[in-house]
Amino acid sequence: MSSSYLPVLILLGVSVANAVGMLVASHVLNPRRPTPEKEMPYESGMIPLGDTRARFSVKFYMVALSFIIFDLETVFLIPWAVAARSLGWQAFAAVAVFTGVLVVGLIYEWRKGVLDWK
């Protein structure tokens, strides 16, 4: 039984040795030379201004949450679309109900003004 785990243990050992070797090599080959420019926080190429703890609008979080929900809808629909012909009408009805629930949710968000950026 233990001989079947030997390749896995060898791979684990090689992986750990590789990770440790890369950390040591980067520390030895690239010594730290701090300068004021290197120590500055980087914000998309812009000079940082203001407090870093600025609050975001709740609408930002609502749109982000909506994006995640509808992105997951796509993730669930792609496998169904690949095998749609072989699954039959029952799977089509299930996906129609799933999509209908999400459309009702989108209409609710729209009516509540979540998608408005005023």
Tell me what the structure shows.
The chain is an all-alpha fold and 118 residues long. It has a single domain, classed as Methane Monooxygenase Hydroxylase, Chain G, domain 1 (Up-down Bundle), CATH 1.20.58. Helix content is 72%, strand content 0%. The chain is built from 5 helices and no strands. The chain has helices at residues 2-29, 36-39, 58-82, 84-87, 89-112. It is flat and about 60 Å long. It starts with a helix and ends in a 6-residue tail after the last helix. The model has no long low-confidence stretch (mean pLDDT 85).
Brief digest:
This protein has about 120 residues and is mostly helical. The protein contains five helices and no strands.
Question: Helical proportion?
Answer: over 70%
Indicate the radius of gyration in whole angstroms: 26 Å
Task: Output the CATH class name.
Answer: Mainly Alpha
Broad structural category: mainly alpha
**Share in β-strands:** under 5%
- Which descriptor suits the 3D outline? flat
Based on the structure given, which CATH architecture is correct?
A: Up-down Bundle
Number of E strands: 0
* Secondary structure tally, helices: 5
CATH topology: Methane Monooxygenase Hydroxylase, Chain G, domain 1
- CA-CA gap between termini: 65 Å
Query: Mean of residue pLDDT?
Result: 85
Described by strand count, sense and barrel closure, the largest sheet is:
none
What number of structural domains do the residues give? 1
Low-confidence stretches: none
Order of helices and strands: HHHHH
